């Protein structure tokens, strides 16, 4: 059973993105196939060198770059959203695969879920 | 064909429609002969398991309605422990662990990890999510 956890909200404004990451890491911890897809403003989670300490939050950059070690299948980002937010291979964290987040992509997964 | 559902509620009562939509679905599913494997509360959804909600008497008491439904049909209700602790929802074990002034978990809900959600997905034919919609 393959699962795609989707994050479509920007980081820091709400807790749902963080809780979506927990869901994905939890699936991986239980040996379930899981990937993350960032779309819309959610792609900003993948921007390098975020300094979240200024608002007393923690950056998730380290968690995301370590995702393969924890057994996550893939970190996917919608190509069009990355272009819209000025993100390219130089500004994205390592290990991100650009995709077209369309209906065809979703057919590759048995389950899809948002955290909220 | 009979289905087995895991329901995930992420919207809080009185700030979203999620808990009552989920309850409407759950009742219809049971009436139609389907099974509910478990109900998992995640994120703001954990507020549904609070024993301290006291809505006005002319409004539906959604936590109470859910408790009665779960008890009547012997369906496990589980609040995610990480979501619950962050939002001030604790059972007696967590109250003692964190030396908090009181426990407020409503029966028959229990507190457990995301593994309950993972297991529910595996055991169920369908997993449905009830979000706040904002």
UniProtKB/TrEMBL annotation, chain A:
Q: Name one Pfam family in it.
A: DsrE
Superkingdom assignment: Bacteria
The record, for InterPro entries, names: DsrEFH-like, Sulphur_relay_DsrE/F-like, Sulphur_relay_TusC/DsrF
The family this protein is said to belong to: Belongs to the DsrF/TusC family.
Protein name per its UniProtKB record = Sulfur reduction protein DsrE
Q: Which organism is it from?
A: Marinobacter flavimaris
From TrEMBL, chain B:
A Gene Ontology biological process in which this protein takes part is:
tRNA wobble position uridine thiolation
Q: Which GO terms describe its molecular function?
A: sulfur carrier activity; sulfurtransferase activity
Top-level taxon of the source organism: Bacteria
Q: Where in the cell is it found?
A: Cytoplasm
Recorded GO CC terms: sulfurtransferase complex
Q: Which keywords has UniProt assigned to this entry?
A: Cytoplasm, Transferase
Q: Does the keyword Zinc-finger apply?
A: no
Q: Which InterPro entries match?
A: DsrEFH-like, Sulphur_relay_DsrE/F-like, Sulphur_relay_TusD/DsrE
Q: Which Pfam family, any one, appears in the UniProt record?
A: DsrE
Q: Which SUPFAM superfamilies match?
A: DsrEFH-like
Q: Which NCBIfam families match?
A: PRK00207.1, sulf_tusD_dsrE
Question: In which family does this protein belong, per the annotation?
Answer: Belongs to the DsrE/TusD family.
**What is this protein called in UniProt?**
Sulfurtransferase complex subunit TusD
The organism encoding this protein is Marinobacter flavimaris
